[in-house]
Amino acid sequence: MAVVSAGSACVFAELLTEFDIHAAAVFQVQPADGATPVLVAAQVETSEWRMPCPAAPLLAGELRRRGVPAQVVRVATPEVAASGESRGSGDDRPEVVADPKDVALFRAAAETVSAVAFLHMPKQEWSAFGLPGKAANVRQALRSWGAAAGARRVLLAGPRSFCAGVERAIKIVERALASYGSPLYVRKQIVHNIHIVRDLERRGVVFVDELDEVPRGAAVVFSAHGVSPAVRQAALVRELRVVDATCPLVTKVHIEAKRFARRGDTVVLIGHAGHEETEGTLGQVPDRMVLVESEEDVDRLSIDGPVSYLTQTTLAEDEVKGVIDALRHRFPLLRGPGSADICYATSNRQDAVRAIAADSDLVLVVGSVNSSNSQRLVEVARRCGTEAHLIDDVSDLDPAWLVGARTVGLTAGASAPAKLVTEVVDALRGLGDVVVEERHTAEETVEFGLPRELRQALAADPPASNGYPHEVIQP
Ligand code: SF4
């Protein structure tokens, strides 16, 4: 390992030589504008060569967790920058121009040692940029990042990532944008993934919590998690043009709730309080439904007359079983849905994570914190006895988790784009040799049609794709 510094003394030289790592990253400290003093290069490019640094987002995330503002950039020589022909096409990260001599030193070092950190910032200038307090944090981030280096096996769970309901919901928003224009209002997050939400916001979508934030007469999309009849009524009153992206498997639960209530049952919904799907389902027959989250909640129920149950679609089967058993014990004539409410995508992803967890030292689940099915995947992996963490993307990956983890299980919740999984594999490859093995436990062929209001527009102008391509991961 070597450190190439454009300045004289290097703060981290002695520290970095402690590690024999197989990662290359460049970082540079810019004159302070206050916001992003540390730039981490995901790619270094000259007119003759281009070197990717795939572990850069991981290092940037570690810097941020330690209170050091960091941004992932592309580094180019002045010649490349002036030509405007950077080969980072498709990579919209900002381009930063570096001195060709420094870039050449980086290249030379990267070819002869296992890893390189390239510091533009001489030690004595740290204080001039107001960073002395952060230097120790940068040092710790580098230590942590370096300690995570090494060869690994990655076990990919299959299926993972998008389900048919999420694919459909995103497509609905895209078609509605094309048909109604921007701004297009969406009530709640269309699916529970922050990357998708931010991307759609950039394309002209305005996410709102409630319909009174939507101008009268505007178009509004209901999210995949479904809404109560009261929300539909509010949309009517405001004369909104509604496009409903409720997943058909959530709609199935709504229909069951109404049917069970019509026959006189009290309907016990097993689900998580406050989740949008749960609220939408409870709202179908609010005076006939009650929510339970646990077996303890079942003990507290006081119901006269017939009882039936339903479940949120994204729960864990092993978690729900105990609650259903408790309900049966309390209400021996309990009736349930004709087929399980936990959807095929949730079940398949849980089976798949079980198939990799036992052979993994660590399981990473890509998904957002408000994604119920992603949270359940973490819990399922932990119940298999394996350390597991939820990450929104690679920058959430704490290098400390990777120390000693030679086999990393990897999956993604039903609302997480496949591209984010690819980025995790790439980052691990930036830390050393990686062999990818996929364990596929189910084929998914489910597809849902679009709502009537959008089918006509689709027939006239079919979409190329939903803008979230499937991943390509080399074994
Ligand atoms: S996780 Fe299941 S219920 Fe939720 S959108 Fe996907 S298919 Fe529909």
From TrEMBL:
Biological or metabolic pathway of the protein: Isoprenoid biosynthesis; dimethylallyl diphosphate biosynthesis; dimethylallyl diphosphate from (2E)-4-hydroxy-3-methylbutenyl diphosphate: step 1/1; Isoprenoid biosynthesis; isopentenyl diphosphate biosynthesis via DXP pathway; isopentenyl diphosphate from 1-deoxy-D-xylulose 5-phosphate: step 6/6
Give the enzyme's EC designation.
Answer: 1.17.7.4
UniProt: (2E)-4-hydroxy-3-methylbut-2-enyl diphosphate binding residues: 192, 225, 275, 313, 371-373, 415
What domain of life? Bacteria
Enumerate the residues binding [4Fe-4S] cluster. 163, 247, 343
Keyword set, alphabetical order: 4Fe-4S, Iron, Iron-sulfur, Isoprene biosynthesis, Metal-binding, Oxidoreductase
- List ligand-binding residues for isopentenyl diphosphate: 192, 225, 275, 371-373, 415
Report whether Zinc-finger shows up as a keyword of the record.
no
Q: How is this protein named in the record?
A: 4-hydroxy-3-methylbut-2-enyl diphosphate reductase
Does Manganese appear among the keywords?
no
- Reactions it catalyzes: isopentenyl diphosphate + 2 oxidized [2Fe-2S]-[ferredoxin] + H2O = (2E)-4-hydroxy-3-methylbut-2-enyl diphosphate + 2 reduced [2Fe-2S]-[ferredoxin] + 2 H(+); dimethylallyl diphosphate + 2 oxidized [2Fe-2S]-[ferredoxin] + H2O = (2E)-4-hydroxy-3-methylbut-2-enyl diphosphate + 2 reduced [2Fe-2S]-[ferredoxin] + 2 H(+)
